[in-house]
Amino acid sequence: MTRLGKSVLTVVVALLAGALIIWWVAPGDDTVDLHAGTTSYSVRLSVTDPAVGTNTVDVEVADLSGTLIAADEVILEPVMVDMGHALTPTALTPTAAKAGQPGHYRAERIDLPMTGPWELTVTIRHRNTTERAVFSLVV
């Protein structure tokens, strides 16, 4: 290989390596958006950049016609079935995320202490009924 060819190859490899490092390190919006239903509700659960440690979980609850509802209580319970880890259930806080509409809830400090498959159970208490939606999340 000629001296010029080696120089071009070195520059190309350096550029590719730099682009790969920037792509890997740069923050992104890796939001996991999951949907599940119960007998009476459609439930959407979102986790932005799920990772080991503290995570923020957003939940949206609507009736089957799509109308957001103000539930009496929404609870999140993370369980790692494979390892037998059941974490303390957390009551979600209503948020005014969408111009004051009901049906939006958040938990800002959900700790997922290890990688692997997690089962997130959302319990909805509304008008003397209790229903659960179960989501699978891999961290």
Automatic annotation (TrEMBL):
It comes from the Bacteria. Residues 36-122 form the YtkA-like domain. This is YtkA-like.
